[in-house]
Structure prediction request, 64 residues.
Amino acid sequence: MLSKANVANQREHLILLLANMDVRNKNLENYTLMSSGSVAKLMDKIFKNYWSWCNYLRCESNTR
Prediction:
């Protein structure tokens, strides 16, 4: 069973990964809003192995 603290730590970790990825892709002087491309890029990075495994097993992914 996941504790509330564990879930909060995982959430914070994903938010930091997303923020770091977004900052690396932008000019800091003109930084305004997070781009949707950063969200898609992080999702692709995190789920790449899962999607590959689903393709190997010829089963449908539950993420898209």
User: Anything to note?
Assistant: The chain has one domain: 4-57. The radius of gyration is 15 Å. The longest helix spans residues 36-57. Helices lie at 4-24, 36-57.
